[in-house]
Amino acid sequence: MTLFDFLRAGRDQKDDLRMDLYEVDRITDTWRRACEGVGLVQRVETVTGTTVVTPEIINITLGTPTSFIIRLLPGQVISDVAEVGHRLAPPLGATRLRLSPRGDMWVRVELMKTDALDRLVPFPDLPLISAQDTVLLGITEEDLPIEQSWAAAPHAVVQGVTGSGKSWWMYSLLAQLAAPRDVIVCGSDPSGLLFRPFKGSRHEPFQVSGLAEPMRHIELAQAVVEEMDRRVTALPEHLDQIEVSEALPLLVVVFEEYPGLLRALDQTDPKLGKQMRSLVSRLLAEGRKSGIRVLLITQRAEANIIGGFERAMCSLRISFRTDNRDAVRLLHPDAMADEGDRHMTAAPGVALLTSPGLPLTRFRGPSIGSYRTYCQTVASRIAG
Ligand SMILES: Nc1ncnc2c1ncn2[C@@H]1O[C@H](COP(=O)(O)OP(=O)(O)O)[C@@H](O)[C@H]1O
Ligand SMILES: [Mg+2]
Question: Which fold has domain 3-112?
């Protein structure tokens, strides 16, 4: 607004504009003091002594949410601001700051009052036709869908404490993957719930549930490795990976509660745990070209279970709420400290995603509603 606009305005309008000017002043002043408080400053020597400068606000847009553009100080990058975002937000009356780069020197700062992910994401209605179709992983804070074709997906690892939404996310993933004829959902599920709705379907022969007979999990992993070897041997010379089809379906191999499975195998016979690890390692190392996608699920991606090799192979990484920030750092090395801290109180279904070619993304997974709906959806998608 210019002085000219102000003089031309009517009395009510003038009051509004005065309030706006007051608000702009308040934000500018608070921003500067908050930056000083968290040390987001530079000291400049002048003839009259040392002056402290902060990233300057060059434009404010009042609204819901209010946002402004700042000019970074020489040598600063956007992550310097992100690193202290959780400390800058409260004095500005925000729960968090959403930052986006504007060129190399400017950053748009949005004052978020509520969590954009504080809502339900509906389960997608449209069934997939083929393994190439994209599944919905969730919705971002910008309300954009995150979609991934599982035929093009890398191996994946999912972590999160109990109650963080891992199972619901898995329900929505498997319910989407149940329909296409060129996909087989298989693997090990010690809890016994995940594969229940697949009973009697073409998926069932490759699924092992419960821990009553630990050896069956080894046999399953062996069978998948043998299938992998068969596929590699049969690979035509001009192809470097198989083409997924109904005859050679994409095998989505889920290891639910992977550490629990290894523990149970170790307790039966320490050799079995070791054997399972080496079978899974082979699937991770060689499975991609033969149409095999591994999905490891764990409460925490501890380094002794999901080691450096496994992490490197699982480039799709998802973290639901974790109980320490190191767990976040382990799977998402690009996560800022404040992201790791904030994630310790994430709502069920809210997760961080690292995936090839994407910056770290916070999202909410689809909600299928209940276990009963999961079972009904899988049954109808298999039949359909
Ligand atoms: N995407 C979601 N949207 C809304 N609520 C969810 C979502 N995911 C999970 N929840 C809620 O959180 C609860 C625990 O989720 P669950 O998947 O069982 O956790 P976990 O498997 O990690 O222990 C669910 O019963 C549900 O009420
Ligand atoms: Mg669970």
Answer: Threonyl-tRNA Synthetase; Chain A, domain 2 (3.30.980)
- Give the closest ligand to the alpha carbon of residue 123: 1
Torsion of CA 323, 324, 328, 331, to 10 degrees: -90
Which atom of ligand 1 is least distant from the CA of 164?
22
Residue nearest to atom 11 of ligand 1 (CA): 348
Of 120, 158, 168, the one to substitute when testing ligand 1's pocket (max ligand atoms within 8 A of C-beta) is: 168
| CB under 8 A, 24+ apart: contacts of 113-119 | 113/64, 113/65, 115/347, 116/141, 116/142, 116/143, 117/141, 117/347, 117/350, 117/362, 117/363, 117/364, 118/347, 119/364
Contacts of 165 (CB under 8 A, 6+ apart): 320, 321, 348, 349, 350, 351, 365
pLDDT, tens digit, 9 for 90 and up, residues 359-377: 889 999 999 999 999 999 9
Select 134-383's CATH number: 3.30.160.40, 3.40.50.300, 3.30.530.80, 1.20.1250.20: 3.40.50.300
**Which amino acid, residue 290?**
S
Q: What is the pLDDT of residues 89-133, one digit of tens each?
A: 999 999 889 888 999 899 999 998 888 888 899 999 999 999 999
